[in-house]
Amino acid sequence: MSYSKLAMKGAAWSLLQVLAERFTQTVVMLTAALFLGPHEFGVAAMATAPAIVTAATLQSGNQLVIQREEATPAFLDTAFSLFLWLGVLAAAAIAALAFVFRMMPGYDAVYLMILPTALAPLAAGVGVVAEGLLERSFNYRVLAVRKTVGQAIAGVACCTLAVLGFGAWSIVVQVTVAPVISTAISIAASGWRAQRLAGFGAMKELIRFSGALLGFSAMNQINIRSVDVIVGFIAGPTATGVFRLARTVLDLAVSLFLNPINNTLLPIFSRMVGDRQRTMEAMWRACGITSLVASLPFVASAFAGPYLVDLVFKDKWPHLALLVTILLSSLPLIAVVVPMQTFLVAIGRPKLALINNVIQTTMNVAFIWVGANFGVIAAGVAFAIRCYLSGGILIFVVARLTPEIRVARDVVTNGPAMVGLGIVAVGEAVLWLCNLNTARLEIAAISTCLALASYGLLLNLVFPTRIGQLLSSAGLRRKLGPVD
To answer: Quick one: which of 108, 131, 147, 115 has its CA closest to 51?
Structure first.
């Protein structure tokens, strides 16, 4: 099967998984938000952040199996042993952190919520090799099912507990149960079992090789989840709850509009890496398509958000609609940066990706720390500014170190973001001048439709080739060609 067909197959299964997974998560988050409120939602976000960071970091270890030219039994046993021990260490660190929270005034009850989440990184470490083998064999169907089933079962448990009045514990149970079920399915489907546990000597080489990769993933997760903790400590759990729910909407948009394409890139890039030019064209094709659709949720939320938030939550979640729009403004840049980072890992430059994530994480902590002192909206603005500044830094550095990547081309690739920002700015100005309130259904519906129609029309005029690539399935099967 050609790489184009593999990409299509992987994107299709990934999209199905994302649709099912995100539909489940949306229902779960809305149910939890309705029954918990911002304060308990914020407490749960702070309690589960360490487990989410460590579990997602360990799951990225499957890239070692994917990229390995020959996955011998000895290598797989060594990888399993390494990530088993890393899972144990992560679980122990989370348990220790729980008792630190117990000694902190005002957070003494949080430690009981942190303790059970230690199971999440342990399960993730155990499933690394099995999941890597499934991705290595392009078994997209099982990969799609395993997460969907895990999220569905954990989601039912979360909703049930929220309705019964268990508060923040409902989200804690979801975060703990989902990776355990996902790992069990991966292990059963792969059919692989470890023959022996490797010693430290055998793991030393793999530790050196995996350090940059795991560091890159850890920085990426810390960059995402540290916000919850920082906003919580400075502005309080209620502000954290609002910020976390807004971030959930951003994560939903990333999953629906970007992940179905990006999830298929690493195994394909890893197989194409011998043909550098072809790999470059594949990366730009991915960036071109993702940047095209990334502004859609941002444009829509600016006009539909106030009505939808008022319809679902009334006054229970203050500032949520505005905060969602602010965070979604960073999505177009994410659409270009994420495929570029995947490309760097695939071509053997994970250290560069790690350095970028260290810079992004440092900037994120600094910007959010300052913004949170002025309220949750200021924290959101700081987050968006950080995304654009750190993204610009990545583009500049990569262009200097990798001559094949040209800054001018990236600016053109990210052009749809400028179109989206312009439409939102003009639309909001018109609404303000006419004194129109988008919390009313008719105003929200008309302004949203006009904004999306204007966005599509302008893109068709400025980027017709890219529109054709997106709409035509035949275009995806043709030989990779240049983007606009």
So the answer is: 115
> Which single residue is written with the structure tokens 């990545």?
394
Residues 6+ apart with CB under 8 A from 281: 480, 481, 482
Distance CA 369, CA 382 (A): 9
Q: Cα–Cα distance between 434 and 113 in angstroms, integer?
A: 49
Q: What is the DSSP letter of 472?
A: -
Radius of gyration of the chain measured on its C-alpha atoms: 22
Structure tokens that stand for 372 in this block? 């949170």
My answer on whether 270 and 219 are in the same domain is: no
Task: Tell me the CA distances in angstroms from 93 to 20, 90, 221, one per residue in order.
Answer: 33, 5, 16
Position 236 in a domain:
no
> Residue 362 falls within a domain, yes or no?
yes
For residue 112, the one-letter residue type is L
Between CA 49 and CA 395 the distance in angstroms is 29
Compute how many other C-beta atoms are within 10 angstroms of the C-beta atom of residue 94.
23
Summarize pLDDT for 116-153 with one digit per residue, the tens.
999 999 998 888 888 877 777 666 677 767 777 888 89
**Domain coverage including residue 37:** 1-225
DSSP string, 74-112: HHHHHHHHHHHHHHHHHHHHHHHHHHHHHTSTT-TTHHH
Structural domains of the chain, count: 2
How far apart (Å, rounded) are the C-alpha atoms in residues 92 and 328?
A: 36
CB of 230 closer than 8 Å to CB of 368: yes
Q: What is the pLDDT of residues 331-376, one digit of tens each?
A: 777 777 777 777 766 666 666 666 777 777 788 888 888 888 888 8
